[in-house]
Design goal:
By secondary structure, the protein is α+β, with helices and mostly antiparallel strands. The chain has two domains: 29-102 and 453-501 and 515-526 and 539-684, no CATH class; 126-388, no CATH class. Strand 23 (367-372) and strand 24 (378-382) form a beta hairpin.
């Protein structure tokens, strides 16, 4: 089945209407000011009608009702006791269109964020070597390798250590798996992770091994190997006969000399799968690990480059930030990410611990997985074998801003121009990272401009009808960087599939600015339909859902925009942001990606104030508005508040406001205009609007990752002997297109014979 993705992107182009920073600082353009009324500019008020085309919801107070299956209830936003639409929501909706239409900077965008992608499970991407961190931040971190990585065996049973690891492992030190799928999920599990401040040493009887020439390892009966296809992988080792779990090293020391000779000292590394972690740990995890400690005095210790430590900290901070809100809402069910080995950072999950102290920072004694480059230099460390990879710009980690033209980032000291939407809606310079001037000069004040457009809240024209209470679908969607959706190759306007491990800011750029498609409201796509079926079926996390009473379709609201000192181009941009075309619908409020929030905004009247004449004796005694520009048939449909403005519109000299909008519209970048109006017109939606699913997935709230796995690497259901080959679909850019692209739901197919 074909389907549309819930959102698409308006392309970005090299900015063309910006004002240089120096010119702005010196007072140009001269009409961009709050200190006086500039001649030959537009000042006044635009009165608008907003009609809900689909149900809509904007929340305020959030509270919990413990007696309901879905505890969280969110109340509707109200103003002076009546249902309303807040000015902030309207301003955000309009300014996003204005920014896109004028190809302006993104005033709300975390341009300094670092992207990362979850690694696939292919062996070449999995970290399996383990080491212990030594040193500290001041002197520099080092790593002592402990256990070799997983080795792939050849057809003769020999397993070779990859050459980059040769200098790190003089002997084949193999890890030992401890516990089972049940015991490691109980807080009574008898082991805890090694703490260098209070070290606990254990011992196990283990086979002594030496490398064969070429750093090869012959098979023996105490190796733990896993067969895959016609070959196998050396994962670790098993203790000698008669041994079970590790014992405290003091017990081993009490054995007779012959038996003691085979016992090797080591430490435990315990992720800790109980408590609030249990639901998050993959069910395939069945063991914790015992790590034999190297006894040779010449065992190598190597440097951990500072860039590797910085990348580790960036990933940890990003994962914590993403999980923090859910954790603070209910720490019993929502653990704080990322998972460090259990009990190595006591108090991290306590609400009383300051946020800065909850960040994971590398410390001496940490047991980490690590990887090396072709020279044997440490190039990656993590707390898990399959974690995340930082998206790069060549050799450095890439910031989100590096995928966009530099002048589209929020205003900062690195920007050389000010964009049209910033001149219209205002901005504040981000001074973080700005170099300090040499003494005795004082730091320069941040550059800022208040908005020359002021938005009111939207009030209803009469009683507002609310729908019955409904539980919303889980508001979840693939977030950037998701390359198959968010990015395209540089210089390729038509786009192509980008594997997530290949995303690089040197080679790829952002598709543009995200906007949501409209959906047929008759199907109630926002309603949760997830139901647990069968004893082993998964169930949606109720903590991710909420109950609301949406505003019904067909409800009317009115609001106004007051503005001063706008040029002809700026008033045209403002009118375009209100109504880009006659069939255009905006999206506003909560649940935009699941079908809520489609509204039609209709400018009723532009009421102009001649500021110069207003302060003359004649102007003070005359009407406030000296000119009215009306939309076609506006007075006939004006059924709400703003009686004084309606009277002024009917009595002042009137003309049509659409030509002002169209003058701006006709001068827009054609690719940008086409994309905005293609996305905003519901008539262009020719297929169901769905989150990406594979055929047979009946619940759009569970296992939404499956489509993305099937798309990039393929899926195999070995139990049912069926597979989905990799699809490699991508979201096609809206350049030179007259229709919205569609995706195909992958279908299960019989598994190919190998």
């Amino acid at each position: 089945m074909n389907f549309h993705h819930p959102y698409h992107f308006v392309p970005v182009e090299p900015p063309s209407g910006n004002v240089s920073r120096s010119a702005f600082e010196n007072g140009a353009p001269t009409h961009v000011t709050h200190g006086r009324y500039a001649p030959d500019t537009w000042s006044g008020r635009i009165v608008c009608r907003l009609e809900t085309v689909s149900p809509m919801f904007i929340g305020s107070t959030r509270h919990e009702e413990d007696d309901k299956p879905v505890k969280v209830k969110v109340d509707n936003y109200t103003l002076a006791g009546q249902i309303a639409i807040p000015a902030s929501s309207l301003r955000g909706t309009l300014s996003s269109i204005a920014e896109a239409a004028s190809d302006s900077a993104m005033r709300v965008f975390d341009s300094k964020a670092h992207y990362s992608v979850r690694k696939p499970m292919e062996p070449e991407h999995v970290l399996s070597a383990i080491g212990v961190v030594l040193g500290d931040k001041a002197s520099g971190f080092q790593l002592q390798p402990l256990c070799i990585p997983t080795l792939r065996a050849d057809r003769d049973g020999f397993a070779a250590l990859p050459k980059p690891f040769w200098s790190l492992f003089p002997e084949p030190n193999l890890k030992v798996y401890v516990g089972d799928s049940r015991s490691i999920r109980r807080d009574s599990f008898p082991f805890r992770t090694f703490d260098m401040a209070k070290p606990e040493w254990f011992a196990l009887p283990l086979e002594t091994r030496k490398w064969l020439p070429g750093y090869r390892l012959a098979d023996d009966r105490f190796q733990y190997r896993k067969p895959v296809s016609t070959r196998g992988y050396v994962l670790g080792q098993t203790p000698l006969e008669g041994a079970a779990d590790p014992v405290p090293i003091e017990e081993a020391k009490r054995l007779d000399e012959d038996r003691r000779r085979t016992w090797k000292p080591g430490v435990m590394r315990v992720l800790g799968c109980w408590g609030n972690r249990e639901a998050e740990i993959p069910p395939g995890k069945k063991h914790e690990v015992f790590l034999p400690w190297p006894e040779r005095p010449d065992w190598p210790v190597v440097e951990i480059p500072g860039s590797v430590v910085d990348e580790f900290h960036e990933l940890c901070a990003a994962r914590m930030e993403a999980s923090l809100k859910a954790h603070e809402r209910d720490p019993r069910k929502n653990p704080l990410l990322p998972f460090e080995p259990r009990d190595t950072r006591p108090g991290r999950e306590s609400k009383s611990t300051p946020k800065a102290q909850r960040l994971i920072l590398l410390k001496k004694g940490d047991l980490v997985y690590f990887g090396v480059d072709e020279r044997g230099t440490i190039n990656e460390i993590s707390f898990s074998a399959i974690w995340r990879k930082t998206v790069r710009n060549g050799t450095d980690s890439a910031k989100a801003s590096e995928f966009f033209p530099a002048e589209l980032s929020p205003f900062s000291h690195t920007r050389g121009t000010v964009s049209p939407a910033e001149l219209l809606f205002g901005f504040v310079e981000d001074v973080k990272g700005r170099p300090a001037p040499p003494p005795p000069a004082k730091p320069r004040q941040a550059l800022a401009l208040a908005s020359r457009v002021r938005t009111s809240a939207a009030l209803p024209s009469g009683p507002v009808r609310l729908l019955d209470e409904v539980t919303l679908k889980v508001l979840d969607a693939p977030k950037p960087p998701c390359p198959s959706l968010y990015f395209k190759p540089r210089g390729n306007p038509n786009g192509e599939f980008i594997p997530k491990m290949k995303l690089d800011a040197r080679l790829h750029e952002a598709q543009g600015r995200k906007f949501y498609l409209h959906q047929p409201p008759q199907t109630e796509p926002w309603r949760s339909v997830s139901k647990k079926a069968g004893p082993d079926a998964k169930e949606v996390n109720k903590d991710q859902q909420c109950r609301i009473n949406p505003i019904a379709a067909g409800q009317s609201f009115y609001f106004h925009l007051d503005f001063d000192n706008l040029s002809d181009a700026e008033i045209g941009l403002l009118l375009y942001s209100l109504s880009p075309s006659e069939r255009f619908l905006h999206k506003i409020g909560m649940g935009k990606g699941i079908g809520l929030g489609s509204v039609r905004i209709s400018p009723m009247a532009l009421l102009r104030v001649d500021r110069a004449r207003r302060y003359t004796p004649e102007g003070l005694a005359g009407p406030r508005y000296h000119q009215a520009l009306l939309a076609p048939a506006a007075l006939a449909h004006w059924d709400g508040p703003y009686a004084a403005e309606k009277l002024a519109a009917s009595s002042a000299p009137a003309s049509d406001l659409l030509p002002i909008r169209d003058a701006f519209r006709n001068g827009m970048n054609p690719n940008i205009r086409q994309a905005i109006e293609l996305i905003g017109d519901p008539a262009n939606v020719k297929a169901p609007v769905l989150p990406p699913l594979i055929q047979g997935q009946t619940d759009p709230e569970l296992e939404t990752f499956k489509w993305f796995v099937a798309n990039e690497t393929g899926l195999v259901d070995r139990a049912a002997d069926r597979e989905i080959p990799a699809q490699k679909q991508f979201l096609r850019p809206l350049v030179n297109r007259r229709d919205l692209p569609v995706f195909i739901q992958p279908a299960w197919m019989p598994r190919r014979r190998r």
